[in-house]
C-alpha cells in the first residue's frame, strides 16, 4: 500500500470507530490536512447519521460544506464527543507534533473541547522521539523576531515559513533541531514566550487513540 492508501485506511477506521457512537444530534470535530481530508470524504457517506461538524480550518470547513455537511461555530456547540485529525509526528505516548498545515491553533482548541481525540496517521508518523519534524509555532506577526530569538535560547533553529498566514492572520516559525525529550515542558515553555499564540506540540492534551496505518493493517494505540 502507498502512503495515500494507508491514510485512506485509517480515515475509514476512524469512521468505523465513531459511527456506532453518533446520533442525529452529534457534532464531530474535524482536523486539517490530507489524512483529515480522507476522513471527511469517508464521513460524508454517512452524513445523514449525525448533525454536523466543527472545523479546525477554513479549508476543512470548505471541504465539509462541499459534501453538504453543516459546519458549526465551536462557540455554539455544547458538546463534542470526537475530534479526528492527522499529525506530523506521534510518539508511543500519543504526544504529537502538528501544524504542518498551519492550522495548529484551531486544531488545539477543538482538541481541547473534544472528549475523545482520535489521531489518524500512516506508519511513517510514529517516531521514538519527537522533533525530526520541525516544530511549528504560530506567532503574532510583530513578535516574529523576538520569538525567534527566544526559540534560539531554547536550543532550536527557527525558520520563518515565508508566504504563509494562518487562518488567524498570524505567521509560522518552524523550529528545527529541537531535542524534544520532555514534550509537556517544552510545550509550556514555548507557549510562555510573549507573542506566541501556540505551538504544535500536543502533549498537555495528547491524542487518546492513535489509528496507525501499516502494511499489516490498521493498528490501534491507546494512551
Ligand atoms: C495541519 C496538521 C496536519 O494534521 C498534519 O500536518 C498532518 O497532515 P497530513 O495528514 O497531510 O500528513 O497538523 O496543521
UniProtKB/TrEMBL annotation:
One matching Pfam family: Rib_5-P_isom_A
Positions of substrate binding: 32-35, 85-88, 98-101, 125
Pathway membership, UniProt: Carbohydrate degradation; pentose phosphate pathway; D-ribose 5-phosphate from D-ribulose 5-phosphate (non-oxidative stage): step 1/1
GO terms for MF: ribose-5-phosphate isomerase activity
Keywords: Isomerase
UniProt EC number: 5.3.1.6
InterPro entries documented for this protein: NagB/RpiA_transferase-like, Ribose5P_isomerase_typA_subgr, Ribose5P_isomerase_type_A
SUPFAM superfamilies found in the cross-reference section: D-ribose-5-phosphate isomerase (RpiA), lid domain, NagB/RpiA/CoA transferase-like
Reactions that this protein is recorded to catalyse: aldehydo-D-ribose 5-phosphate = D-ribulose 5-phosphate
Swiss-Prot/TrEMBL GO biological process terms: D-ribose metabolic process; pentose-phosphate shunt, non-oxidative branch
Top-rank taxon, per record: Bacteria
GO cellular component: cytosol
Cited Gene3D superfamilies: 3.30.70.260, 3.40.50.1360
Record-annotated active site: 107
PANTHER family according to UniProt: RIBOSE-5-PHOSPHATE ISOMERASE (PTHR11934)
Quaternary assembly: Homodimer.
Protein family per UniProt: Belongs to the ribose 5-phosphate isomerase family.
HAMAP family on file: Rib_5P_isom_A
Reported function: Catalyzes the reversible conversion of ribose-5-phosphate to ribulose 5-phosphate.
Name this protein carries in UniProt: Ribose-5-phosphate isomerase A
Originating organism: Pseudomonas sediminis
Lineage of origin: Bacteria, Pseudomonadati, Pseudomonadota, Gammaproteobacteria, Pseudomonadales
Gene of this entry: rpiA
